């Protein structure tokens, strides 16, 4: 009961603090010290730059901007202060300010491309070894758009799959398996709001349109206390705020999709907007192909869409409001043309159709406020939803005089999850040695694990029924605090604590999650880093282990199914070579997981009225150990990276594999990638990526035998000694077989040209350039021409998904 008293009081205090704002900014600095604060922006668009560095002369004292581009630096009072702002890919700006009074100053940075220099933009200007972070990956959006892409469509998740510690799972899949975790263990945030399902086209494309994104980063470990709710990673995606200086836009068409975006100012530069939309093109081909192949009797279509809108308004110099909406969905449908057959009393006319829909919806309202020059606050109110529905229909019309056989039947299966959340986050900068963050989050969950609906109407009877798992509500509240502290000139740390309380079915659960990260400089360009993170996850994903369609069910931790837990330790070395523009990191990690769940052997989604909790085994454990190496170059005409991962990923359930440990299905001993981007000329860029990975683990039958059953008899026309008996298969250890190794080469080229009122871009390339036949799945067969009576030894066959695929897309910006 203590929590129910603490949290309302906390949010009440937040509201009072929010409304109380300081009467003047000059009165806030401690005696003998002054504070400099403001924002760092892109001079051309007005877009705020998160992670930009702001420091004094010599770079000995400094800070970085937060996600809203805000910085605060408190220094001893002096006659004048020389401040420099920098962001990799932008020219540095230095100003001299009066040093005896608190001052607000904003920086506007110009990209180095506009200054005639060639550098990759979008990453922090702080050297790798001096950042108080580890296990963090960032790919600038500008660089991401130059990588080879499946059918010419740039994709955020595919780019991160090329980094060490991140795997793709199956061929073509956009899912992220981070340090041995599963996709449901990734916290995906779109402007600080969770989003549940992140893929289109059965997993081949992510829901994030690169044209609407300003910044994206992936945390694999060393999690700060402000993040929680998942075990394996945090994917933090930020939408653009909109061009503050002028109206601009972008439109393009490719094989996979057509997209359009528009952004600009609305009112006196205080209000900006962004709208972005993308639609899949595959149904334009599938409709025609299915009609031709079926003689016009059926139509098969697949389409998807994304739509984002964001409005930003500068209410006062200290207050900014944001409103954002995202809608996205997929649809796969099969419609059969009405067929007519002859019945005993006349003609029968029937028609079948199926319709699969799934997608996300998200809406958020945020308020940023500079409470004092040293205190920054952010309040968020949001709702997010994922919904899945699969509907089958059958219509039968009896055209005979009696008309007794008419029928109209509909069957559907649906599932989903819906959240409403309120959160408040604060950042306090008392001195250059401390950056303190604290806040709270409250989430109301509503789970629909799986509901079946069936209705049938005939002239003589009617049936209407609903069965399956019932809707479950849950509530989750979290408090956190963390301090990024500079202990000495060489030693820095991030010390944090997250406290969670979760209620479901009248039961309260919770825990305390400590987080520690330390960075020690052992040389001018070398640092040793270590981290520990305790994580808890109060929801599970039941996966069908299939080809990627989201027949996966989100379910809550309950009285019977405990929340997932994980602990991760990491130790690494970070080193930069400034003369070469190289960053080198080597990290070793160990992650242990508890309370994992899996489907029981033979369990399915569509199982009448059986509750999902009866279909799973619980209490599973996981152990992941690995070594990751990343060598990355972000500056110059020649950029890219080389990554390598050596890892071991195992699971154990008392009720599976006789209780023995077994390799996880995406256990991959060796995983390597090479990414090369070369800017031949300012308007021509060539790129190539090569990936290699140990084959996935799976379970295969090791033999089979006939089960003698006297109810089966001789088969007509068969040899006298041949009986048709059912066959049973014999299995060995779980996941004891390995697929062939996976490797692939992708090539790409980007051609840009300045044209009237903007720029046009062509992207060409090839996916799987040497047409490697990588395994998608394997199966046993005795051969297509063998009958039951003449079949011989069964053989193992492989199905490959993608041969070499050309890529082509066109884009026009203005």
Spell out the blueprint of helices and strands:
Elements: H1 2-20, E1 33-42, E2 53-56, E3 62-64, E4 70-76, E5 80-86, E6 93-98, E7 103-104, E8 107-109, E9 136-138, H2 141-144, H3 156-160, E10 166-167, E11 177-178, E12 186-190, E13 193-194, E14 199-200, E15 205-206, E16 213-219, E17 233-239, E18 248-254, E19 257-267, E20 271-280, H4 282-293, E21 298-316, E22 319-336, E23 339-342, E24 347-372, E25 375-398, E26 407-431, E27 434-457, E28 462-468, E29 472-486, E30 491-504, E31 507-523, E32 526-537, E33 539-542, E34 553-556, E35 564-577, E36 582-599, E37 616-633, E38 638-652, E39 662-663, E40 670-681, E41 684-693, E42 697-698, E43 701-706, E44 727-731, E45 737-738, E46 742-755, E47 758-767, E48 775-781, E49 795-800, E50 805-813
Parallel strand pairs: 1-7, 1-8, 12-17
Antiparallel strand pairs: 1-4, 2-3, 2-5, 5-6, 9-16, 10-11, 12-13, 14-15, 16-17, 18-19, 18-50, 19-20, 20-21, 21-22, 22-24, 23-24, 24-25, 25-26, 26-27, 27-28, 27-29, 29-30, 30-31, 31-32, 32-35, 33-34, 35-36, 36-37, 37-38, 38-39, 38-40, 40-41, 41-46, 42-45, 43-44, 46-47, 47-50, 48-49
